[in-house]
Amino acid sequence: xxxxxxxxxxxPLQAGPVSRTVLALFAxxxxxxxxxxxxxxxxxxxxxxxxxxxxxxxMAYLGRLLTDHFxxxxxxxxxxxxxxxxxxxxxxTCAGRVTGITExxxxxxxxxxxxxxxxxGTVTVRGTxxxxxxxxxGPHGKLTENGRNKR
Amino acid sequence: MPLxxxxxxxxxxxxxVTVERGRLSFFAGAIGERNPxxxxxxxxxxxxxxxxxxPPTFLFGLALAGPGPFRWLADxxxxxxxxxxxxxxxxxxxxxxxxxxxxxxxxITGTYEKKGGAMQFIDRLTTVHRHDCxxxxxxxxxxxxxxxxxxxx
Lengths: 151, 153
What we know:
The complex is a heterodimer of chains A (about 150) and B (about 150).
Chain A: E1 9-15, H1 20-30, H2 40-45, H3 55-69, E2 75-82, E3 92-104, E4 107-118, E5 123-132, H4 139-146
Antiparallel strand pairs in A: 1-3, 2-5, 3-4, 4-5
Chain B: E1 15-18, H1 21-30, H2 41-46, H3 58-62, H4 71-75, E2 83-92, E3 101-114, E4 119-130, E5 135-146
């Protein structure tokens, strides 16, 4: 595992474009069936021009960025604010940066800042995560480092 | 009309749901996940998991598994179409896996308004426990309710 330090960068991880198919599949898979994300008629009835992506889809992409770099059981905390909507067809770019590493009860914990940005430059999600670096040698960590294969 | 402070402490009916492998694979596909640990049981086991792990944000949707997941909004007189997701947080205690039976309990923890009442906020806390009472995670959500401008007279 590459040594992490303040300023270490995660990503970028690019996802999308967020098609209507992606929104339909995410609605079914996540359980969030709010029609504003999947039904253009409902979006127009609410005064919008079109459907827009679930904020949680972008948070899920940020989750992928985290689990691409850390074993999931080492992730202690993951917080975001949704700062702008993600329109249909947007490409989402996720990035992270280590803002500090502190010892908590003898355990090194990395603090990260996270962003999701769409192709017009709008930042749609800002967040933070805390990752327990003592957990990083676990089996999942080795797999995410070495065992990934492509579908 | 501001939401009454009396909604603080309101509890939704608990949701108990068994995490299904198929649903986790479906979720992995929908978010473009490429790490087979999240959709291939053999890969998950080879990585030391007892089954497919529940990915970091999946618990959010499990809270919507009950009947009428948005009914609590309607009960408050809020039109779902005026609702935005303002913020979401997860504090993780223990990793959950496919096959786990989880209970999610949601409580309204705060409400306030901004922009002279044009935007109202509702904070909710959802605790997640496994069937053996192990504490899996705590979720916090901020819901933003946009009050549409009054129609012209």
